Amino acid sequence: MAEEVLSQNEIDALLSALSSGEMDANELKQEDQSKKVRVYDFKRALRFSKDQIRSISRIHDNFARLLSTYFSAQLRTYVHISVASVDQIPYEEFIRSIPTMTILNIYSVQPLDGRIIFEFNPNIAYSMLDRLLGGKGSSINKVENLTEIETTLMSQLFEKALDNLQEAWGSVVEIDPILEEFEVNPQFLQLVSPNETVVVVSLDTTIGESSGMINICIPHVVLEPIIPKLSVHYWMQNESNKERKPEEYNNLARNLKTAEVDMSVILGESNITLEELLFLNSDDVIILDQSIDKPLSLHVDREPKFLVQPGKNKNKIAVQIIEEIKGGDLDDE
């Protein structure tokens, strides 16, 4: 429990009250020794630590960025998605919090047990559908009158977004999300018992001029097998395990040695006008800025790397490396 730090004015006021008799030191001591009681609601059991909630939030921050890029490409308009909140609440409370008629997608996430729910606010869902069909992204709420074609188009759009969810969770567990159901009435969904704890990730979404929320409901039963992986210790251990082993460095070095690079030697340069270039004849001489008694520059992939001197090797034109050109911190190491 965090201790409260008093200011100097509060300390002076407390000492003054004790000196004048307005407060009794024994009463303060008895109050301090009395038991602290905290109200706990068993219907709203907190089964995830703050550390684990932060990990879930970090995963979905990445998911929101990936989803923004995906929807921007698919809908050809401005899309911004960010995590608004991550809360753990009873499943019944989540069902009561969403509209009576909305867009609900139910996914299985093998190899994890259970299913998760994506709830798309109707304003967002219809804005996506309008853009998908070539419109301006107008939002018209007619969830009760969805046609079979509209349902199919929405399902396909949301199903293709599952690759982003798989990538976002890849740092913790490899999942294979599959769209199983498309529903509009939350009362028909009974994935877990009403008092079961679920994590609700709310994504603040803007598509063109329309805005709304995307809510992701993840039951505790889904996350239970991977709860140990949602701690900071796991993330830190995972990062430390990413250090390359000596044999990996050797393999990398061996592969780099077989890579091909373009090399060229610059004999010299000169500046002439376009008119002079057009009227060049076979006997004309172009004066270069390179002195014959100074070394030439050897370029590797257009970057100067060595100073060389020209010559011959077995009747073939060749160059001999004199020294390396130092050009940065990497070269100095």
Automatic annotation (TrEMBL):
Protein name (Swiss-Prot/TrEMBL): Flagellar motor switch protein FliM
Domain Flagellar motor switch protein FliN-like C-terminal: 255-325
Localization per Swiss-Prot or TrEMBL: Bacterial flagellum basal body; Cell membrane
Keyword Membrane: yes
Gene Ontology cellular-component terms listed: bacterial-type flagellum basal body; plasma membrane
Single GO BP term: bacterial-type flagellum-dependent swarming motility
A GO molecular-function annotation: cytoskeletal motor activity
InterPro entries: CheC-like_sf, Flag_FliM, FliN-like_C, SpoA-like_sf
Membrane topology summary: Peripheral membrane protein
PANTHER family: FLAGELLAR MOTOR SWITCH PROTEIN FLIM (PTHR30034), YOP PROTEINS TRANSLOCATION PROTEIN Q (PTHR30034:SF6)
Keywords, ordered alphabetically: Bacterial flagellum, Cell membrane, Cell projection, Chemotaxis, Cilium, Flagellar rotation, Flagellum, Membrane
Species name: Saliterribacillus persicus
Family: Belongs to the FliM family.
